[in-house]
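During the second year of the project, the team shifted from modelling isolated chains to modelling whole assemblies. The rationale, set out in the original proposal, was that interfaces cannot be judged from single-chain predictions alone. As a representative example for this report, we include one of the complexes processed in the last quarter. Its constituent sequences, exactly as entered into the pipeline, are reproduced here:
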Amino acid sequence: MTVLNQDTPSTAAGSRPARRRKPLGTRAYKVFRVAALVVVVLFLLAPLFWMLLASLKTNVDIYDTAKAFLFSPTFENYANVLQRNNYFVFVVNSFWVAFVSTALSIVLGVPAAYAMSRFTMHRSALVVLMARVIPGVSLLVPWYYVFSNLRMVGKFEVLILSHMFVALPLIVYIMMSYFDSLPLELEESAEVDGLTPIGAFRLITLPLAVSGIATAGFLSFIFSWNNFMFALVLSGAKTKTLPVAIFDFVSYASIDWGGLMAAATVVTIPIMIIALFTQKYIVSGLTAGATKG
Amino acid sequence: MSVLNPPRSAQPRSARGPSGRGSNFSAWANRHRKWLFAAPAMIFVGVLIVFPLAWTLYLSLTDSQGSVRAATEFIGLKNYLTVLTDTDRFWPAVGRTLSFTGLALAFEVVLGMGIALLLWRPFRGEKWVRVAILLPLVATPVAVGMMWRLIFDPNIGFVNQLLGMVGIPPQPWLSGQDTALGTTIFMDVWQWTPMVVLILLAGLTSLSDEPDEAARVDGANAFQRFFYITLPLMMPTVIVAILLRGIDALKTFDILYATKGKGGGSFHEVETLNVYAYGLSFDYNQYGLSSAVLILFFMIIIGSMWLLTMRKKAANK
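Output from the structure prediction step:
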Protein backbone atom coordinates (compact mmCIF):
# COMPACT_ATOMS: atom_id res chain seq x y z
CA MET A 1 0.00 0.00 0.00
CA THR A 2 2.64 2.49 1.00
CA VAL A 3 4.54 1.66 -2.16
CA LEU A 4 1.52 2.49 -4.27
CA ASN A 5 0.96 5.66 -2.35
CA GLN A 6 4.43 6.81 -3.15
CA ASP A 7 4.04 5.90 -6.77
CA THR A 8 0.98 7.94 -7.46
CA PRO A 9 2.50 11.39 -7.12
CA SER A 10 5.50 10.42 -9.21
CA THR A 11 3.43 9.31 -12.19
CA ALA A 12 1.25 12.31 -11.81
CA ALA A 13 3.96 14.84 -11.14
CA GLY A 14 4.81 15.69 -14.72
CA SER A 15 1.36 16.28 -16.05
CA ARG A 16 -0.67 17.41 -13.12
CA PRO A 17 -0.60 20.44 -10.88
CA ALA A 18 -0.37 19.46 -7.22
CA ARG A 19 -3.38 21.51 -6.23
CA ARG A 20 -5.72 18.87 -7.69
CA ARG A 21 -6.45 17.19 -4.40
CA LYS A 22 -10.04 18.06 -4.03
CA PRO A 23 -12.48 15.70 -2.35
CA LEU A 24 -13.20 12.80 -4.66
CA GLY A 25 -16.92 13.03 -4.22
CA THR A 26 -19.29 10.79 -2.41
CA ARG A 27 -18.63 7.32 -1.12
CA ALA A 28 -20.97 5.89 -3.76
CA TYR A 29 -18.91 7.49 -6.50
CA LYS A 30 -15.72 6.04 -5.04
CA VAL A 31 -17.19 2.54 -5.11
CA PHE A 32 -18.49 3.07 -8.64
CA ARG A 33 -15.13 4.36 -9.76
CA VAL A 34 -13.21 1.37 -8.43
CA ALA A 35 -15.72 -1.06 -9.95
CA ALA A 36 -15.65 0.71 -13.30
CA LEU A 37 -11.85 0.74 -13.37
CA VAL A 38 -11.73 -2.96 -12.59
CA VAL A 39 -14.09 -3.64 -15.51
CA VAL A 40 -11.97 -1.49 -17.82
CA VAL A 41 -8.74 -3.23 -16.83
CA LEU A 42 -10.35 -6.67 -17.23
CA PHE A 43 -11.77 -5.74 -20.61
CA LEU A 44 -8.35 -4.59 -21.82
CA LEU A 45 -6.22 -7.36 -20.36
CA ALA A 46 -8.40 -10.47 -20.48
CA PRO A 47 -8.03 -11.07 -24.25
CA LEU A 48 -4.24 -10.79 -24.01
CA PHE A 49 -4.25 -13.15 -21.05
CA TRP A 50 -6.38 -15.59 -23.03
CA MET A 51 -3.92 -15.48 -25.92
CA LEU A 52 -1.07 -16.22 -23.52
CA LEU A 53 -2.99 -19.14 -21.95
CA ALA A 54 -3.83 -20.65 -25.33
CA SER A 55 -0.20 -20.42 -26.41
CA LEU A 56 0.69 -22.66 -23.44
CA LYS A 57 -1.93 -25.30 -24.28
CA THR A 58 -1.80 -28.28 -26.58
CA ASN A 59 -4.31 -28.16 -29.41
CA VAL A 60 -6.30 -30.89 -27.67
CA ASP A 61 -6.63 -28.71 -24.57
CA ILE A 62 -7.65 -25.69 -26.64
CA TYR A 63 -10.59 -27.64 -28.02
CA ASP A 64 -11.56 -28.85 -24.54
CA THR A 65 -13.73 -26.13 -23.01
CA ALA A 66 -13.45 -27.76 -19.57
CA LYS A 67 -9.75 -26.92 -19.59
CA ALA A 68 -10.18 -23.19 -20.05
CA PHE A 69 -8.04 -22.29 -17.06
CA LEU A 70 -6.91 -25.59 -15.57
CA PHE A 71 -4.46 -27.40 -17.79
CA SER A 72 -0.87 -28.54 -17.73
CA PRO A 73 1.14 -25.82 -19.50
CA THR A 74 3.52 -26.76 -22.26
CA PHE A 75 6.15 -24.80 -24.17
CA GLU A 76 5.85 -27.08 -27.16
CA ASN A 77 4.12 -24.40 -29.24
CA TYR A 78 6.94 -21.96 -28.65
CA ALA A 79 9.55 -24.57 -29.47
CA ASN A 80 7.71 -25.34 -32.71
CA VAL A 81 7.30 -21.73 -33.70
CA LEU A 82 10.85 -20.69 -32.91
CA GLN A 83 12.61 -23.74 -34.30
CA ARG A 84 10.53 -25.37 -37.00
CA ASN A 85 8.99 -22.18 -38.33
CA ASN A 86 12.19 -20.15 -38.09
CA TYR A 87 10.67 -17.34 -36.09
CA PHE A 88 14.07 -16.29 -34.78
CA VAL A 89 14.87 -15.11 -38.29
CA PHE A 90 11.64 -13.11 -38.49
CA VAL A 91 12.27 -11.56 -35.09
CA VAL A 92 15.70 -10.43 -36.26
CA ASN A 93 14.23 -9.14 -39.56
CA SER A 94 11.52 -7.18 -37.78
CA PHE A 95 14.01 -5.72 -35.36
CA TRP A 96 16.48 -4.76 -38.07
CA VAL A 97 13.89 -3.10 -40.30
CA ALA A 98 12.31 -1.21 -37.40
CA PHE A 99 15.68 -0.13 -36.00
CA VAL A 100 17.24 1.10 -39.24
CA SER A 101 14.11 2.83 -40.51
CA THR A 102 13.72 4.60 -37.17
CA ALA A 103 17.37 5.65 -37.01
CA LEU A 104 17.39 7.02 -40.56
CA SER A 105 14.09 8.80 -39.98
CA ILE A 106 15.50 10.49 -36.89
CA VAL A 107 18.54 11.68 -38.84
CA LEU A 108 16.32 13.13 -41.56
CA GLY A 109 13.33 14.14 -39.47
CA VAL A 110 14.77 15.94 -36.45
CA PRO A 111 16.55 18.74 -38.36
CA ALA A 112 13.54 19.08 -40.63
CA ALA A 113 11.18 19.37 -37.67
CA TYR A 114 13.53 21.94 -36.15
CA ALA A 115 13.52 24.10 -39.27
CA MET A 116 9.76 23.76 -39.66
CA SER A 117 9.20 24.72 -36.05
CA ARG A 118 11.65 27.65 -35.91
CA PHE A 119 10.80 29.11 -39.30
CA THR A 120 7.08 28.23 -39.02
CA MET A 121 7.08 26.46 -42.37
CA HIS A 122 3.45 25.46 -42.19
CA ARG A 123 3.06 24.56 -45.82
CA SER A 124 6.17 22.38 -45.85
CA ALA A 125 5.00 20.67 -42.70
CA LEU A 126 1.70 19.95 -44.40
CA VAL A 127 3.50 18.15 -47.23
CA VAL A 128 5.26 15.87 -44.78
CA LEU A 129 2.13 15.30 -42.74
CA MET A 130 0.18 14.38 -45.87
CA ALA A 131 1.99 11.07 -45.58
CA ARG A 132 -0.10 10.28 -42.52
CA VAL A 133 -3.28 10.70 -44.52
CA ILE A 134 -2.63 8.96 -47.83
CA PRO A 135 -3.83 5.34 -48.02
CA GLY A 136 -0.78 3.10 -48.16
CA VAL A 137 -2.16 1.02 -51.04
CA SER A 138 -1.96 3.98 -53.42
CA LEU A 139 1.78 4.14 -52.80
CA LEU A 140 2.38 0.41 -53.03
CA VAL A 141 1.54 -0.02 -56.72
CA PRO A 142 4.05 2.58 -57.97
CA TRP A 143 6.66 1.43 -55.45
CA TYR A 144 6.18 -2.15 -56.46
CA TYR A 145 6.55 -1.23 -60.11
CA VAL A 146 9.74 0.76 -59.60
CA PHE A 147 11.36 -1.67 -57.21
CA SER A 148 10.50 -4.77 -59.17
CA ASN A 149 12.07 -3.16 -62.24
CA LEU A 150 15.17 -2.49 -60.15
CA ARG A 151 14.96 -6.13 -58.96
CA MET A 152 14.86 -4.91 -55.39
CA VAL A 153 11.57 -6.27 -54.11
CA GLY A 154 12.32 -8.55 -51.20
CA LYS A 155 15.44 -6.66 -50.16
CA PHE A 156 15.84 -4.97 -46.81
CA GLU A 157 16.53 -1.59 -48.43
CA VAL A 158 13.07 -1.43 -49.96
CA LEU A 159 11.36 -2.55 -46.79
CA ILE A 160 13.27 0.00 -44.72
CA LEU A 161 12.45 2.72 -47.23
CA SER A 162 8.75 1.92 -47.07
CA HIS A 163 8.78 1.87 -43.27
CA MET A 164 10.59 5.20 -43.19
CA PHE A 165 7.65 6.56 -45.06
CA VAL A 166 5.55 5.90 -41.94
CA ALA A 167 8.28 6.77 -39.45
CA LEU A 168 9.49 10.06 -40.89
CA PRO A 169 6.17 11.96 -40.82
CA LEU A 170 5.54 10.65 -37.32
CA ILE A 171 8.93 11.87 -36.12
CA VAL A 172 8.53 15.25 -37.82
CA TYR A 173 5.08 15.63 -36.27
CA ILE A 174 6.21 14.79 -32.73
CA MET A 175 9.46 16.74 -32.90
CA MET A 176 7.75 19.82 -34.31
CA SER A 177 5.48 20.07 -31.31
CA TYR A 178 8.50 19.35 -29.08
CA PHE A 179 10.64 22.11 -30.60
CA ASP A 180 7.64 24.46 -30.44
CA SER A 181 7.70 23.97 -26.67
CA LEU A 182 11.44 24.68 -26.28
CA PRO A 183 12.18 28.36 -25.53
CA LEU A 184 13.89 30.31 -28.29
CA GLU A 185 15.86 32.38 -25.76
CA LEU A 186 18.39 29.60 -25.08
CA GLU A 187 19.51 29.54 -28.69
CA GLU A 188 19.51 33.31 -28.92
CA SER A 189 21.78 33.67 -25.92
CA ALA A 190 24.04 30.93 -27.27
CA GLU A 191 24.35 32.89 -30.48
CA VAL A 192 25.13 36.03 -28.54
CA ASP A 193 27.89 34.03 -26.86
CA GLY A 194 29.39 33.32 -30.26
CA LEU A 195 27.87 30.10 -31.55
CA THR A 196 26.62 29.91 -35.10
CA PRO A 197 22.90 29.08 -35.49
CA ILE A 198 23.76 25.53 -36.53
CA GLY A 199 26.16 25.30 -33.62
CA ALA A 200 23.44 26.45 -31.25
CA PHE A 201 21.16 23.78 -32.66
CA ARG A 202 23.80 21.09 -32.31
CA LEU A 203 25.17 22.02 -28.88
CA ILE A 204 22.16 23.55 -27.12
CA THR A 205 18.85 22.52 -28.66
CA LEU A 206 19.69 18.96 -29.65
CA PRO A 207 20.83 17.88 -26.16
CA LEU A 208 17.65 19.42 -24.75
CA ALA A 209 15.58 17.54 -27.28
CA VAL A 210 16.88 14.09 -26.33
CA SER A 211 13.72 13.07 -24.53
CA GLY A 212 11.64 14.27 -27.45
CA ILE A 213 13.78 12.27 -29.83
CA ALA A 214 13.40 9.23 -27.58
CA THR A 215 9.64 9.69 -27.66
CA ALA A 216 9.55 9.91 -31.43
CA GLY A 217 12.02 7.06 -31.81
CA PHE A 218 10.22 4.57 -29.57
CA LEU A 219 6.88 5.28 -31.21
CA SER A 220 8.25 4.99 -34.69
CA PHE A 221 9.96 1.72 -33.75
CA ILE A 222 6.64 0.33 -32.50
CA PHE A 223 4.76 1.44 -35.61
CA SER A 224 7.38 -0.10 -37.83
CA TRP A 225 7.44 -3.35 -35.84
CA ASN A 226 3.66 -3.59 -36.19
CA ASN A 227 3.52 -2.62 -39.86
CA PHE A 228 1.85 -5.26 -41.97
CA MET A 229 0.71 -4.00 -45.35
CA PHE A 230 4.02 -2.73 -46.72
CA ALA A 231 5.85 -5.86 -45.64
CA LEU A 232 3.08 -8.04 -47.10
CA VAL A 233 3.83 -6.70 -50.57
CA LEU A 234 7.49 -5.71 -50.41
CA SER A 235 9.13 -8.39 -48.26
CA GLY A 236 10.61 -11.58 -49.67
CA ALA A 237 11.39 -14.99 -48.25
CA LYS A 238 14.58 -13.71 -46.62
CA THR A 239 13.22 -10.40 -45.35
CA LYS A 240 9.83 -11.49 -44.05
CA THR A 241 8.84 -9.63 -40.89
CA LEU A 242 6.84 -11.04 -37.97
CA PRO A 243 3.36 -9.70 -38.87
CA VAL A 244 3.62 -11.27 -42.33
CA ALA A 245 4.96 -14.50 -40.86
CA ILE A 246 1.95 -14.70 -38.55
CA PHE A 247 -0.41 -14.01 -41.41
CA ASP A 248 1.18 -16.83 -43.43
CA PHE A 249 0.63 -19.13 -40.47
CA VAL A 250 -3.09 -19.41 -41.21
CA SER A 251 -2.88 -19.82 -44.95
CA TYR A 252 -2.12 -23.52 -44.44
CA ALA A 253 -5.06 -25.92 -44.33
CA SER A 254 -6.31 -26.10 -40.75
CA ILE A 255 -5.35 -23.65 -38.07
CA ASP A 256 -2.82 -24.78 -35.47
CA TRP A 257 -4.30 -22.58 -32.74
CA GLY A 258 -1.63 -23.24 -30.16
CA GLY A 259 1.14 -22.42 -32.60
CA LEU A 260 -0.70 -19.36 -33.88
CA MET A 261 -1.17 -17.99 -30.38
CA ALA A 262 2.49 -18.69 -29.56
CA ALA A 263 3.46 -16.80 -32.72
CA ALA A 264 1.13 -13.92 -31.82
CA THR A 265 2.66 -13.82 -28.34
CA VAL A 266 6.18 -13.84 -29.76
CA VAL A 267 5.41 -10.75 -31.86
CA THR A 268 3.59 -8.82 -29.14
CA ILE A 269 5.76 -9.57 -26.09
CA PRO A 270 8.91 -7.70 -27.21
CA ILE A 271 6.94 -4.62 -28.19
CA MET A 272 4.97 -4.66 -24.94
CA ILE A 273 8.13 -4.92 -22.88
CA ILE A 274 9.62 -1.97 -24.75
CA ALA A 275 6.36 -0.07 -24.23
CA LEU A 276 6.33 -0.77 -20.48
CA PHE A 277 9.84 0.58 -20.00
CA THR A 278 9.22 3.62 -22.17
CA GLN A 279 5.63 4.28 -21.13
CA LYS A 280 6.21 7.95 -20.31
CA TYR A 281 7.66 8.67 -23.75
CA ILE A 282 5.04 6.73 -25.65
CA VAL A 283 2.16 8.47 -23.93
CA SER A 284 3.64 11.91 -24.55
CA GLY A 285 4.31 11.00 -28.18
CA LEU A 286 0.79 9.72 -28.83
CA THR A 287 -0.73 12.84 -27.35
CA ALA A 288 1.78 15.28 -28.91
CA GLY A 289 0.09 18.34 -30.28
CA ALA A 290 -3.34 17.13 -29.24
CA THR A 291 -3.99 19.91 -26.73
CA LYS A 292 -2.56 22.82 -28.64
CA GLY A 293 -6.00 23.86 -29.84
CA MET B 1 22.69 0.63 -50.78
CA SER B 2 20.53 2.77 -52.98
CA VAL B 3 18.44 3.30 -49.88
CA LEU B 4 20.97 5.89 -48.86
CA ASN B 5 20.50 7.98 -51.96
CA PRO B 6 17.76 10.31 -50.77
CA PRO B 7 19.54 11.27 -47.52
CA ARG B 8 22.76 12.08 -49.36
CA SER B 9 21.81 15.70 -49.68
CA ALA B 10 21.70 15.79 -45.88
CA GLN B 11 25.42 15.30 -45.45
CA PRO B 12 26.59 18.88 -45.28
CA ARG B 13 24.08 19.52 -42.55
CA SER B 14 25.47 18.96 -39.10
CA ALA B 15 28.50 16.85 -39.97
CA ARG B 16 30.73 19.88 -40.36
CA GLY B 17 28.89 21.91 -37.80
CA PRO B 18 30.39 24.99 -36.23
CA SER B 19 33.98 23.78 -36.42
CA GLY B 20 34.59 25.52 -39.70
CA ARG B 21 33.35 28.79 -38.31
CA GLY B 22 34.33 31.72 -40.37
CA SER B 23 34.83 29.59 -43.43
CA ASN B 24 32.69 30.29 -46.43
CA PHE B 25 30.92 27.01 -46.20
CA SER B 26 29.86 27.45 -42.62
CA ALA B 27 28.54 30.91 -43.31
CA TRP B 28 26.67 29.62 -46.32
CA ALA B 29 25.27 26.66 -44.36
CA ASN B 30 24.10 28.87 -41.54
CA ARG B 31 22.47 31.33 -43.88
CA HIS B 32 20.58 28.57 -45.64
CA ARG B 33 20.00 26.33 -42.65
CA LYS B 34 16.25 26.55 -43.02
CA TRP B 35 16.28 24.63 -46.28
CA LEU B 36 19.39 22.61 -45.50
CA PHE B 37 17.55 21.15 -42.53
CA ALA B 38 14.15 20.74 -44.09
CA ALA B 39 15.04 19.75 -47.66
CA PRO B 40 16.28 16.16 -47.14
CA ALA B 41 13.12 15.06 -45.35
CA MET B 42 10.91 16.95 -47.76
CA ILE B 43 12.64 15.53 -50.81
CA PHE B 44 12.35 12.04 -49.35
CA VAL B 45 8.66 12.40 -48.61
CA GLY B 46 8.06 14.26 -51.84
CA VAL B 47 9.67 11.59 -53.99
CA LEU B 48 7.89 8.83 -52.11
CA ILE B 49 4.49 10.52 -52.10
CA VAL B 50 4.09 13.06 -54.86
CA PHE B 51 5.46 10.76 -57.50
CA PRO B 52 3.35 7.70 -56.51
CA LEU B 53 0.28 9.87 -56.10
CA ALA B 54 0.74 11.39 -59.55
CA TRP B 55 1.27 7.90 -60.88
CA THR B 56 -1.91 6.66 -59.22
CA LEU B 57 -3.78 9.56 -60.77
CA TYR B 58 -2.34 8.67 -64.17
CA LEU B 59 -3.06 4.94 -63.77
CA SER B 60 -6.66 5.72 -62.83
CA LEU B 61 -7.09 7.16 -66.33
CA THR B 62 -5.71 4.08 -68.08
CA ASP B 63 -6.78 0.48 -68.53
CA SER B 64 -3.65 -0.84 -66.80
CA GLN B 65 -4.09 -4.41 -65.65
CA GLY B 66 -2.37 -7.77 -65.49
CA SER B 67 1.16 -6.52 -65.19
CA VAL B 68 2.29 -3.03 -64.33
CA ARG B 69 4.72 -3.33 -67.22
CA ALA B 70 2.07 -4.19 -69.79
CA ALA B 71 1.19 -1.54 -72.35
CA THR B 72 -1.67 0.65 -71.23
CA GLU B 73 -4.11 2.81 -73.05
CA PHE B 74 -5.52 6.13 -71.97
CA ILE B 75 -9.24 5.69 -71.42
CA GLY B 76 -10.18 8.96 -69.76
CA LEU B 77 -12.69 8.78 -66.95
CA LYS B 78 -14.00 5.34 -67.86
CA ASN B 79 -12.62 3.72 -64.68
CA TYR B 80 -14.37 6.30 -62.55
CA LEU B 81 -17.59 5.65 -64.41
CA THR B 82 -17.20 1.90 -63.85
CA VAL B 83 -16.43 2.37 -60.17
CA LEU B 84 -19.14 4.92 -59.45
CA THR B 85 -21.82 2.76 -61.07
CA ASP B 86 -20.61 -0.38 -59.31
CA THR B 87 -23.31 -1.14 -56.74
CA ASP B 88 -21.94 -4.64 -56.25
CA ARG B 89 -18.56 -3.98 -54.67
CA PHE B 90 -17.69 -0.27 -54.58
CA TRP B 91 -20.73 1.31 -52.92
CA PRO B 92 -21.11 -1.44 -50.32
CA ALA B 93 -17.40 -0.94 -49.56
CA VAL B 94 -17.99 2.79 -49.13
CA GLY B 95 -20.88 2.01 -46.79
CA ARG B 96 -18.79 -0.43 -44.76
CA THR B 97 -15.88 1.99 -44.54
CA LEU B 98 -18.13 4.76 -43.27
CA SER B 99 -20.10 2.61 -40.84
CA PHE B 100 -16.94 0.93 -39.55
CA THR B 101 -15.31 4.32 -38.97
CA GLY B 102 -18.43 6.02 -37.65
CA LEU B 103 -19.43 3.30 -35.19
CA ALA B 104 -15.90 2.58 -34.02
CA LEU B 105 -15.27 6.29 -33.46
CA ALA B 106 -18.57 6.78 -31.63
CA PHE B 107 -17.82 3.96 -29.19
CA GLU B 108 -14.19 4.97 -28.79
CA VAL B 109 -14.97 8.61 -28.04
CA VAL B 110 -17.81 7.89 -25.59
CA LEU B 111 -15.95 5.08 -23.81
CA GLY B 112 -12.70 7.02 -24.04
CA MET B 113 -14.25 10.07 -22.41
CA GLY B 114 -15.74 7.91 -19.67
CA ILE B 115 -12.44 6.20 -18.91
CA ALA B 116 -10.52 9.48 -19.10
CA LEU B 117 -12.89 10.99 -16.52
CA LEU B 118 -12.37 7.96 -14.26
CA LEU B 119 -8.62 8.45 -14.51
CA TRP B 120 -8.69 12.22 -14.24
CA ARG B 121 -8.15 12.62 -10.49
CA PRO B 122 -5.18 10.76 -8.99
CA PHE B 123 -5.85 7.51 -7.17
CA ARG B 124 -4.04 4.54 -5.70
CA GLY B 125 -2.99 2.00 -8.30
CA GLU B 126 -3.24 4.49 -11.13
CA LYS B 127 0.03 3.17 -12.47
CA TRP B 128 -1.41 -0.29 -13.10
CA VAL B 129 -4.45 1.03 -14.90
CA ARG B 130 -2.17 3.06 -17.14
CA VAL B 131 -0.20 -0.06 -18.03
CA ALA B 132 -3.43 -1.86 -18.91
CA ILE B 133 -4.38 1.03 -21.15
CA LEU B 134 -1.05 1.02 -22.93
CA LEU B 135 -0.86 -2.69 -23.80
CA PRO B 136 -3.67 -3.02 -26.41
CA LEU B 137 -2.41 0.16 -28.02
CA VAL B 138 1.04 -1.18 -28.83
CA ALA B 139 0.02 -4.76 -29.62
CA THR B 140 0.67 -5.78 -33.24
CA PRO B 141 -2.68 -5.48 -35.08
CA VAL B 142 -2.18 -8.70 -37.04
CA ALA B 143 -1.52 -10.61 -33.81
CA VAL B 144 -4.53 -8.91 -32.25
CA GLY B 145 -6.64 -10.09 -35.17
CA MET B 146 -5.46 -13.68 -34.67
CA MET B 147 -6.12 -13.43 -30.94
CA TRP B 148 -9.73 -12.34 -31.53
CA ARG B 149 -10.17 -15.06 -34.15
CA LEU B 150 -9.61 -17.62 -31.41
CA ILE B 151 -11.69 -15.79 -28.82
CA PHE B 152 -14.61 -15.31 -31.22
CA ASP B 153 -14.34 -18.77 -32.79
CA PRO B 154 -17.91 -20.12 -32.98
CA ASN B 155 -16.95 -23.58 -31.65
CA ILE B 156 -14.05 -23.19 -29.25
CA GLY B 157 -14.07 -19.43 -28.63
CA PHE B 158 -14.21 -18.08 -25.09
CA VAL B 159 -16.98 -15.60 -25.90
CA ASN B 160 -19.43 -18.31 -26.90
CA GLN B 161 -18.41 -20.33 -23.83
CA LEU B 162 -19.23 -17.34 -21.65
CA LEU B 163 -22.55 -16.78 -23.41
CA GLY B 164 -23.34 -20.47 -23.01
CA MET B 165 -23.01 -20.13 -19.23
CA VAL B 166 -25.83 -17.58 -19.16
CA GLY B 167 -27.91 -19.55 -21.64
CA ILE B 168 -27.34 -17.52 -24.80
CA PRO B 169 -26.92 -19.69 -27.93
CA PRO B 170 -23.54 -19.51 -29.71
CA GLN B 171 -23.15 -16.70 -32.22
CA PRO B 172 -21.16 -16.93 -35.49
CA TRP B 173 -19.26 -13.63 -34.84
CA LEU B 174 -16.52 -13.27 -37.45
CA SER B 175 -17.85 -16.06 -39.64
CA GLY B 176 -21.39 -14.67 -39.78
CA GLN B 177 -22.35 -12.57 -42.77
CA ASP B 178 -24.20 -10.04 -40.60
CA THR B 179 -22.05 -10.16 -37.49
CA ALA B 180 -18.54 -9.99 -38.99
CA LEU B 181 -18.35 -6.22 -39.46
CA GLY B 182 -19.69 -5.59 -35.95
CA THR B 183 -17.12 -7.97 -34.51
CA THR B 184 -14.27 -6.18 -36.27
CA ILE B 185 -15.62 -2.87 -34.96
CA PHE B 186 -15.48 -4.37 -31.47
CA MET B 187 -11.86 -5.36 -32.07
CA ASP B 188 -11.02 -1.84 -33.21
CA VAL B 189 -12.74 -0.40 -30.13
CA TRP B 190 -10.72 -2.70 -27.87
CA GLN B 191 -7.42 -1.71 -29.44
CA TRP B 192 -7.90 2.01 -29.99
CA THR B 193 -10.12 3.29 -27.16
CA PRO B 194 -6.91 3.58 -25.09
CA MET B 195 -5.51 6.01 -27.66
CA VAL B 196 -8.58 8.22 -27.28
CA VAL B 197 -8.28 7.94 -23.49
CA LEU B 198 -4.69 9.16 -23.57
CA ILE B 199 -5.48 12.12 -25.80
CA LEU B 200 -8.54 13.14 -23.78
CA LEU B 201 -6.67 12.69 -20.52
CA ALA B 202 -3.95 15.01 -21.77
CA GLY B 203 -6.70 17.50 -22.57
CA LEU B 204 -8.39 17.13 -19.20
CA THR B 205 -5.18 17.63 -17.23
CA SER B 206 -4.43 20.80 -19.16
CA LEU B 207 -7.82 22.30 -18.26
CA SER B 208 -7.89 25.06 -15.69
CA ASP B 209 -9.68 24.20 -12.45
CA GLU B 210 -11.40 27.54 -12.01
CA PRO B 211 -14.52 27.20 -14.19
CA ASP B 212 -15.26 23.81 -12.64
CA GLU B 213 -14.64 25.21 -9.16
CA ALA B 214 -16.89 28.19 -9.80
CA ALA B 215 -19.71 25.96 -11.05
CA ARG B 216 -19.32 23.79 -7.98
CA VAL B 217 -19.60 26.82 -5.72
CA ASP B 218 -22.72 27.82 -7.63
CA GLY B 219 -24.20 24.46 -6.77
CA ALA B 220 -23.94 22.64 -10.12
CA ASN B 221 -23.95 18.86 -9.79
CA ALA B 222 -21.41 16.55 -11.42
CA PHE B 223 -23.48 16.00 -14.58
CA GLN B 224 -24.15 19.70 -15.06
CA ARG B 225 -20.49 20.48 -14.53
CA PHE B 226 -19.51 17.89 -17.15
CA PHE B 227 -22.02 18.86 -19.83
CA TYR B 228 -21.90 22.63 -19.37
CA ILE B 229 -18.29 23.19 -18.30
CA THR B 230 -15.90 20.33 -19.01
CA LEU B 231 -17.29 19.06 -22.32
CA PRO B 232 -17.44 22.45 -24.08
CA LEU B 233 -13.90 23.20 -22.90
CA MET B 234 -12.78 19.79 -24.13
CA MET B 235 -14.37 20.11 -27.57
CA PRO B 236 -11.15 21.06 -29.43
CA THR B 237 -9.32 18.08 -27.90
CA VAL B 238 -12.23 15.76 -28.67
CA ILE B 239 -12.11 16.86 -32.30
CA VAL B 240 -8.34 16.29 -32.44
CA ALA B 241 -8.92 12.78 -31.08
CA ILE B 242 -11.61 12.13 -33.68
CA LEU B 243 -9.36 13.52 -36.39
CA LEU B 244 -6.31 11.44 -35.48
CA ARG B 245 -8.29 8.27 -34.85
CA GLY B 246 -10.66 8.81 -37.77
CA ILE B 247 -7.87 8.96 -40.36
CA ASP B 248 -6.53 5.63 -39.13
CA ALA B 249 -9.97 4.05 -38.78
CA LEU B 250 -10.86 4.92 -42.38
CA LYS B 251 -7.66 3.22 -43.50
CA THR B 252 -8.02 0.13 -41.28
CA PHE B 253 -6.53 -2.84 -43.06
CA ASP B 254 -4.52 -5.12 -40.79
CA ILE B 255 -7.21 -6.57 -38.55
CA LEU B 256 -9.68 -6.90 -41.43
CA TYR B 257 -7.22 -8.71 -43.66
CA ALA B 258 -5.90 -10.83 -40.78
CA THR B 259 -9.34 -12.01 -39.68
CA LYS B 260 -11.20 -12.32 -42.97
CA GLY B 261 -8.46 -12.56 -45.61
CA LYS B 262 -8.77 -11.62 -49.27
CA GLY B 263 -11.81 -9.65 -50.39
CA GLY B 264 -12.99 -9.19 -46.81
CA GLY B 265 -14.41 -12.70 -46.56
CA SER B 266 -16.34 -14.87 -48.99
CA PHE B 267 -19.31 -12.48 -49.00
CA HIS B 268 -17.07 -9.39 -48.78
CA GLU B 269 -18.65 -8.80 -45.39
CA VAL B 270 -15.78 -6.69 -44.05
CA GLU B 271 -14.52 -5.36 -47.37
CA THR B 272 -13.82 -1.69 -46.78
CA LEU B 273 -12.40 0.64 -49.45
CA ASN B 274 -8.84 -0.03 -48.35
CA VAL B 275 -9.30 -3.82 -48.45
CA TYR B 276 -11.11 -3.52 -51.78
CA ALA B 277 -8.36 -1.39 -53.33
CA TYR B 278 -5.67 -3.70 -52.00
CA GLY B 279 -7.46 -6.71 -53.47
CA LEU B 280 -7.92 -5.01 -56.85
CA SER B 281 -4.23 -4.17 -56.95
CA PHE B 282 -2.53 -7.22 -55.59
CA ASP B 283 -5.00 -10.09 -55.89
CA TYR B 284 -6.59 -9.18 -59.24
CA ASN B 285 -3.95 -6.83 -60.73
CA GLN B 286 -6.59 -4.35 -61.89
CA TYR B 287 -4.31 -1.36 -61.46
CA GLY B 288 -6.39 1.15 -63.43
CA LEU B 289 -9.59 0.36 -61.60
CA SER B 290 -7.88 0.15 -58.22
CA SER B 291 -6.26 3.55 -58.78
CA ALA B 292 -9.65 5.10 -59.46
CA VAL B 293 -10.97 3.57 -56.21
CA LEU B 294 -7.94 4.93 -54.35
CA ILE B 295 -8.34 8.44 -55.72
CA LEU B 296 -11.99 8.43 -54.65
CA PHE B 297 -11.01 6.99 -51.26
CA PHE B 298 -8.40 9.68 -50.86
CA MET B 299 -11.01 12.32 -51.61
CA ILE B 300 -13.31 10.85 -48.96
CA ILE B 301 -10.48 11.02 -46.38
CA ILE B 302 -9.54 14.59 -47.28
CA GLY B 303 -13.21 15.58 -47.31
CA SER B 304 -13.90 14.24 -43.83
CA MET B 305 -10.70 15.79 -42.48
CA TRP B 306 -11.68 19.13 -43.93
CA LEU B 307 -15.13 18.94 -42.35
CA LEU B 308 -13.58 18.15 -38.95
CA THR B 309 -11.01 20.93 -39.19
CA MET B 310 -13.80 23.38 -39.98
CA ARG B 311 -15.67 22.07 -36.97
CA LYS B 312 -12.55 22.46 -34.84
CA LYS B 313 -12.09 26.06 -35.90
CA ALA B 314 -15.71 26.72 -34.94
CA ALA B 315 -15.14 25.05 -31.55
CA ASN B 316 -12.04 27.13 -30.89
CA LYS B 317 -13.92 30.39 -31.31
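The radius of gyration of chain B is 25 Å. DSSP finds 13 helices and no strands in chain B.
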